[in-house]
TrEMBL record:
Protein name from the UniProt record: IS701 family transposase
Stored InterPro entries: IS701-like, IS701-like_DDE_dom, RNaseH-like_sf
Residue ranges occupied by any Transposase IS701-like DDE domain in the UniProt entry: 20-292
Source species: Saccharothrix lopnurensis
Length: 419
């Protein structure tokens, strides 16, 4: 926003800053937090500290000291942000995803050569994992973790020289000793647990196939009493819900089997949906968009979907006492003109749910792309140039607070500039 627009909404920004920065031990820290927010919200191509300081008319060392050396607790800021989102957003789902931060050098924490979604290829980058409170009308990034590849984990090597080099680069970035490599799906679960402890409503979890294909991730959600609608690959192994295990048959040799087994081998999600046929699907409108075209003047999101009851097949899924695997939904999208389905989801949403409601939850992940675009293009999420672990987490926290300010402003009556 321009300085003139900033003056018009300054009371809202100050009120929001007072709410999320209210736990700071020192009053000047709250002022610095509001200053950093205004720097992120003002127009400008770069949102790193020096360009922001120039636009704000302050010494950039004020911003640098606040982010890298001050004593405020970014976790407490996130807790307050989550409390705000639980009430203001009132999410329909919790969305999990990750995003890449391209880097030229190798000194920033967590940098490694890996797939970077922002570039669409393997490159030198950091990866941040995030959880978002989402509805169709709005969303908020409420928690973050920086992913540490194994190359940053000095416990993952038996080579003393390699471990020593890893320890040196960790020390340069001030990475805490208890922070080591942890898979992205485990980081997501850590954040979900944290958000629930903070009072976030228990909502369905949505994620792409990088998470949905992981049986352990799905099972951990179930163990927590959370439902989900997660994307999976077409090759996911399943049994039809009507399949039942049969008692073991003892041939008289070797150790007798003790568990019932399914008589037929599992089949793929693609095979089950293809066998059901396109005609078994129904057209569903799950959202009314804002981009109207000549071919779609109402901007409706509409496609054909099929939903079947299935039993995912994996040896690590706990079975019922009778040996049967738990049931869930297999949802597939089969658009008009496509020779086969294009997308698949597994879902533990209730058995009586309407198809339209299940599709709405499964498709609600689109809000994450909106969040990443707003956070990166407008609020400088990926502009942080510092090289400290703490600085990265503080910057992404402040960018998320700036996004929340934008969300509140969009739903707040216009505020007149001060005299």
């Amino acid at each position: 926003m321009t300085p003139e627009e900033m003056a018009g909404v300054r009371p809202v920004i100050e009120g929001f800053a007072a709410e999320v920065f209210g736990g700071f031990a020192r009053r000047d820290q709250g002022g610095k937090g509001e200053l950093y927010l205004r720097g992120l919200l003002l127009d400008g191509k770069r949102k790193s500290m020096q360009p922001m300081a120039e636009r704000l008319g302050v010494d950039h060392q004020q911003l640098q000291q606040f982010v890298t050396a001050s004593t405020w607790d970014h976790v407490e800021v996130r807790r307050r942000l989550a409390v705000w989102a639980a009430g203001f957003v009132d999410p329909d789902a919790l969305a999990v995803d990750d995003t890449g931060f391209p880097k030229d050098g190798i000194s920033s924490p967590g940098v490694a050569r890996m797939y970077c979604g922002a570039l669409g290829k393997r490159a030198n980058c950091q990866v941040g994992v995030s959880v978002h409170a989402v509805t169709d009308w709005t969303s908020a990034a409420v928690d973050w973790r920086l992913f540490l590849p194994e190359s940053w984990d000095d416990h993952k090597t038996d080579d003393d020289q390699a471990a020593s080099e890893i320890a040196r680069k960790r020390a340069r970035c001030a990475i805490p000793d208890d922070v080591q490599h942890r898979e992205k799906w485990r980081l997501a679960l850590d954040m979900i647990d944290e958000l629930l402890d903070w009072g976030m409503p228990r909502r369905p979890v949505v994620a792409d196939s990088a998470y949905g294909d992981n049986t352990a991730f799905r099972q951990c959600l179930t163990d927590r009493g959370l439902t989900y609608a997660v994307a999976v690959s077409a090759s996911t192994s399943l049994h039809p819900a009507t399949s039942v295990p049969v008692p073991p048959v003892y041939s008289g040799t070797g150790r007798p089997p003790v568990k019932p087994t399914y008589p037929d081998k599992p089949v793929t999600a693609k095979a089950l949906i293809t066998e059901a046929g396109r005609s078994a699907g129904r057209f569903v409108v799950w959202r009314h968009g804002s981009r109207k075209t000549a071919g779609n003047p109402t901007a409706t999101m509409r496609s054909r979907f099929l939903a079947l009851r299935v039993r995912p097949a994996n040896r690590n899924i706990p079975r019922h006492p009778d040996g049967s695997l738990p049931e869930c939904w297999l949802l597939a999208e089969w658009p008009t003109g496509e020779p086969e389905p294009t997308d698949y989801w597994l879902s533990t949403l209730p058995t009586g749910i309407r198809l339209r409601d299940m599709v709405k939850i499964a498709k609600i992940r689109w809000r994450i792309e909106h969040d990443y675009r707003e956070l990166k293009d407008g609020l400088g999420l990926d502009h942080f140039e510092g090289r400290s672990w703490l600085g990265w987490h503080r910057h992404v926290t402040l960018a998320s607070v700036a996004q929340a300010v934008c969300t509140q402003l969009r739903r707040t009556p216009k505020v007149h500039a001060r005299d």
